[in-house]
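Collaborator request log, item 7. Partner lab (contact: R.S.) asked for a structural prediction of Flavodoxin family protein to inform their binding assays.
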Amino acid sequence: MRALAFVCTLNSSPTPSSSHLIADQVMAEFESLGVSGEVVRVADHDIRPGVGLDMGDGDAWPALREKVMAADILLVATPIWLGHPSSICQRVLERLDAELSETDEQGRLLTYGKVAAAAVVGNEDGAHKVSADLFQALNDLGFSLAPGAVTYWVGEAMQGTDYKDLDGPPETVASTTRTLAVNAAHLARLLTGGPYPAS
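Returned to partner:
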């Protein structure tokens, strides 16, 4: 089993990132369950705007798409900006939109059988709204969602503390992260053994 995390912080490496931190924590839980993985900070790659598989002119998306296709689980980690997922997160969803035109010999999307989950951080309210946006988009794109498919942390409104500034994850966040990993890995294994039928 393989997991891929897209970290959708606005900052490229090596700038510290709360989104990257919570993604690393989810991936550590996956590792403990025998799921290997990779974390990709999307801002480090030249992802062109559009809804095609390859937008040409040095577009980095085709190589990242290969990683998506090789993974059983996709984690999308995003900060909250103005109550919404980051613009980079939106670009990832827009590029995944091309998968709606890609099907197997039985007419199923190539993303069928893949599990998606979300990790959300921010200093303002909106984690439920952001996860709802991600859930709808990822499900539309053919991914399956396990129960408890999001882990999140939201700091006090109008304050400056970030998730990465904490001494460690609060117990409730750590527990939620564990549940996300356990359920996502379980569902991914079930789908590997029993793919969706043609419809």
